[in-house]
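Hi F.,

I've been meaning to write this up properly since the lab meeting, where we talked about keeping a consistent format for the predictions we share between groups. The idea is simple: the sequence comes first, exactly as it goes in, then the structure tokens exactly as they come out, then a line or two of notes. No screenshots and no reformatting. I'm using this chain as the first example so we have something concrete to point to.
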Amino acid sequence: MSSEPDPDESRRRARAVQSGATRAAVLGISDGLVTNVSLILGVAGAQASGNIVLLAGMASLVAGAASMAVGEYVSMAAQVELLERLLSEFRQHLRDNPEHARADLEQFIRRGGVLPATAMNASKQISLVPDRALAVYARSLGLDPEELGSPWRSALTSLVTFAAGAAVPLAPWFFRSGTTAAVASLALGALAALVVGGALGYLGGRRVIWSAARQIVALALAAGATWGAGRLFNVTVT
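Output, unedited:
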């Protein structure tokens, strides 16, 4: 079996990353997990009632998911508008100063290692079709003009993944309370952090163990800080 990458698959993955959905999913589930593990253990460290912990966790899940979705939508919408403006400016540049725009394309092609004469000829051919010239220019900026990003997709992804991550440490409090539920929250959170960290390492082509360990350390530091803050109130979880 050939180990060479499939160009179509590589293109699909690149578009998924540029769309913002992949970033939103990674941030969503990681933030949801860390946020609710920390909050739940912090409240558990200061509050005797399991119902209060459950209420705080649910409030954090809903508020955090909504906040992440809104923030991701605003961020992606601004990014798309900026990218569209860049492309619009170059489209205008093609109309107003075609020779200068052609020279820009030639420089981009030459940076790819193409011989000057070949680059000049290619830029002339490309400039004859404005849409093709615009696409080449966009790629010179590292953009795919066919997929600038989807604010709605990113927002929905953030909403769902944050809620999923936040639900993991909250689940034990529906059935138990006190120390038993707190330990279960921490255990589930640690397991989920290992999975998330390992998946990030695998997808990014990095060491899976190192990525998983880094995620666990981040979770432990956040949870430990909030648990310690909660214990300052000197209330035992029962």
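Notes:
The CA atoms of residues 34 and 219 lie 6 Å apart.
Residues 21-231 form one domain.

If this format works for you, I'll send the rest the same way.

G.
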